[in-house]
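Handout, section B. The chain below has 137 residues.
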Amino acid sequence: MIRTIATAALVLAFGAFALTWLAIQKATHVIAPEIHVAVVAAAFALGGLWCGWWLATRRHGPRFVLNTAAVQSLGLTGQEMRVLTALAAGGANKDIARALGLSPNTVKTHLAHLFAKLEAGTRTEAVGRARDLGLIP
């Protein structure tokens, strides 16, 4: 984390120095205003590309690993796990049923079993407990 902050601080400091130097060069008529604008635009375009690449390739936290011991101890079936994953994605019962090829009543039955096994009263509570147990990312 400190390395990331230090890198960002150095990049920003260098950018501020470069912009100030360019402004001085423009003010003293060493470079033409058109060149000044072109250099600043190119610098911001390259900086934006670099930041986008850097953010897109960063890993955010450890990779999710399913807690199989919790799955077994709760007695969750594969279909219940799929319903739980769809529930965590925010799907309504009809959307979950359509995505998994089930009837809405079957989804309701699976949700009732999930609520009982997770000792949850609401969908939000069930998803929270499942995340705490490492059942879903």
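Note. The mean pLDDT is 88. Compare this with the example in section A.
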